[in-house]
Design a protein that fits this description.
The structure holds two protein chains of two kinds. Chain A is α/β, with parallel strands linked by helices. Chain A has 17 helices and 14 strands. Helices cover 43% and strands 14% of the residues of chain A. The longest helix of chain A has 26 residues. The termini of chain A are far apart. Classes of the chains: A alpha/beta, B mainly alpha.
Chain lengths: 446, 332
Amino acid sequence: MSSTRKYRRTACTGLALVLPLAALAACGGGGGADASAEAGSGKGTISVWAHQGQKSEDAAVQAAVKSFNSSQRDIKVELKLIPGNDYTKTITATSASELPDVMEFDGPTMANFVYNKKLAPIDDYVSSKTMANATDASKSQGEIGGKHYGLGMYDSGLGIYGNKKLLDAAGVKYPTGLSDDWTAARFTAALKALKAKDSDGKTLDIQENNGLTTEWGTYGFAPVVWSAGGSLIKGDKAEGALDTPAVISALETVQSWKTYVDPNTDGNAFAKGRVALSWVGHWMYPTYSQALGDDLVVLPLPDFGNGPKTGQGSWAWGIGADSKNAKAAGAFMDYLLNDTNVTAMTTANGAPPATRTALAASPLYKQGGPLQLFADQLAKPCGDSDITKTCVAVTRPVTAGYPTITAKFGEALSSIYGGAEPKSALEKAARAIDQDFSDNAGYKIP
Amino acid sequence: MKSVEPAHAAPPAREKAPPVTAAEPARPARSVRRNRDWLHGLLMSTPAVAGLIAFVGIPFGYAVVLSFYNVRLGSPLAPTFFGLEQYRRLFTDPDLSGPFLRALLNNLTFAVVVVPVQTALALGLAILLNRKLKAIGVFRSLFFMPVVFPMALVAVIWRLILARSDQGMLNSALHTVSFGNWGAVDWLGDSATAMASIIVLSIWQGVGFQMVILLAGLQQIPGELYEAAELDRASRWQQFRHVTLPGIRGTLVFVAMLTSVLSFRVFDQVYVLIRGGGLDEDAARTVMYQAVTTAFDQNNVGQAAAITVVFFLIVVALTLIQRRVVRPDNED
């Protein structure tokens, strides 16, 4: 009796002692083996992880896996869907050896997974045809140091949806495309004009209900920084990139918009016609077009001096660094990125296809389609660092330090929006990011 | 009034009982018993002590160790020894110590307001619900209901109540009551009202729990005491002052202690409301919130460990002080 109790106690204490040590080992260590998957025979079973998103997206992935399995006899794919909210945490918490052969990941998290050796370069395993068919924007999101680690089925883009009826009623002139984009001042004037005609004076939606300290804050408002000629980080340093006078004044402008912004507690501000303008991404198109029909117009984000900019990048697919069957994994990725599957997926979620052929054929994004603007933006990719006046779609910083960048930028944005002084908030964020990079030896990928 | 302490009654009763096993009758029974008591006491407390060591002691020791290192979640770099750097940053680096000290202040404000207000409110509710009314059970469950809801759910509901502009239920109610003279207040986004909003919703959610404990305390007070007080022509207030309060003194102290410990843990409502409610982050940040976001959003485990170590020490110190000031056994 007492001996079993004693045994249990020892076991308990032992376990409690070992668990944190194991965690420490998992935190550190890792070095040694190079992150490149084994090609394998190209036959057999491979495991695939994907995030569980909207029902229609899940169905598209499942259908692709099913048709792949029945299309040939050599490779069998086993798909596991993991809830989207926990997906990134799941991969972070799983050691490389337990990760699947093929996995989906959210764009800006890729560099971190490459950094801790969870993803292998795909160049040797994905066919050159697939690689050539990927859009430049998609390729630049997946590239680190000349190697590609991921390719997406779809991309993303930001814009402003306008309610034509309300805009016309207020006599507001709005751009027809990227070429005659409005300046931030013209946009502010439009808000003012709309306010005069609005019962509660709230004429803009910026998806405040998503929170600005979240990834939405960075994705949605980093374009303001880029459009002002700044950058979230430049050559591993945020100081001098994130806190330039132009960026500070741009964020002062954003701050001044708060009086026009509907808090959008119910998420329906634009669809119900409470506001005339909605600053959001492509993903609201299905809802908005259903609510407004022909009254819906799609506009670029305002220009803060360095040309209009938009965020870019979405979920992508890559090969696990410990895969023993990368050849088969590459074959599956080729299949996933063919026109049939990309079209099925983008029909399911309304996103811009990330392959040239599917994009050209897409009824929404083709020339003359209702979302042509998003395609036009993505056709002018900047990558993550070469932000010129003429390019439009900027990839969020491809660095393993991204979690800190997004956390600090979101924090600064939220406090500026809440009334804090933009200069000190941005300088603080820049210092915190730089401190983090120096603590981590610049997050250099070994 | 002497509070009854049933715990003390147990050992003497056991002493009177005959020895359970008379293995060695030659030895003086007393010392054997004392030995056994010691052993039994140890055995009985083993699960609790083991749990305490496993879930508090070891993690805390581990946090202390981690706080001396630069440790990152999911980093291929080996943890490097940092010495007191994390603590130095927490207290002297203006960028880091600003938010941290603000979070500490927010926590203290929260505790200083919530502990007395919530305890008093719970007592009031308990007295109100300690009547022999028809369907009193229904009322009691109604007041207890918010406790059953998860905090995340409560926060989402209160987000609708506290929403800024005239969409918020509170704002539109005030607008109606004031015949349109009420300007829409940004309850969550304004640094002046952000913490107050968190406090109000936390009290609303938690008060039922304290109320139930106090209700049980109230029902322990013998009715004869009130009858006697009434015969002595004690007023309602005098009855409350001299019968009710002394009768539940122990319970009250327990509730106050419990509330203060719980109030240091405030996290969920802040976390939920900042991500979606437009809560002013600086004005509402609590230490727990900062520790969690530092560790899991920024992957900075060492820094988060230092935050929790400092916080743990502060909470322990405060609890010790509180125990000295309001000791359940103290006579008034």
